[in-house]
Amino acid sequence: MNTESIVIDLTHTITPQTPTFDGGCGFHLATTIDYRECTEPNLFRVQKIDMRAGIGTHIDAPAHCIEGGKTIESLELDDLVTACVVIHVDTGGSDTFKIQPDIVGEFEKIHGQIEPHAFVIFHTGWDAHWDVPEKYLNDHKSPSIDVRTAELLLSRNIVGIGIDTLSADSGASDFPVHRAVLGVGKYLVENIANAGQLPPVGAQSVILPMKIGDATEAPVRIIAFVPKKI
Question: How confident is the model at residue 3, as a pLDDT?
């Protein structure tokens, strides 16, 4: 760890109350062997996890919606450990706000053009509702990304896009941002936490999904290193 950096955890804790795309419980943690069932001194608690692949703070690999696309274990580490750009978006509290290309344009007027190989996070503040699943899901209405915005970022040759909502797309029936981003071999990270603690530029993100063969989605532990001088 670089002692000149602060580490920010961008990951929500997964529990049985974690909001899921269909609104149901997507996570179960069960104890199959408990300490009292063991013979001392070898005391163990053994647990079993049952969950959806795309739960909590998670990554979508290209294969999530592109047949023949890269799966989770094929994602390059160089694309998962990279510069992190954060675009803080004022949604005015709207649950139908769509992030337009001009928001990226205004960001670049201040901070310069987004450099190639960056991971771009949109911070909308929607993660404040995480602990109230009904509000977070909100009938699939939350701030989202206009596909033209995604296309603009792809023209900058970014590695992926993240957002602090349930989906980069609005609604539950059409997914143009998923098709655009995953269709060119990039990735999406959804349900990001604490992005409001990150500076617009200067941080480095580390995205570590469970390395599951043939998986199209996986939970991630995502952190960011922020230089103390920022």
Answer: 64
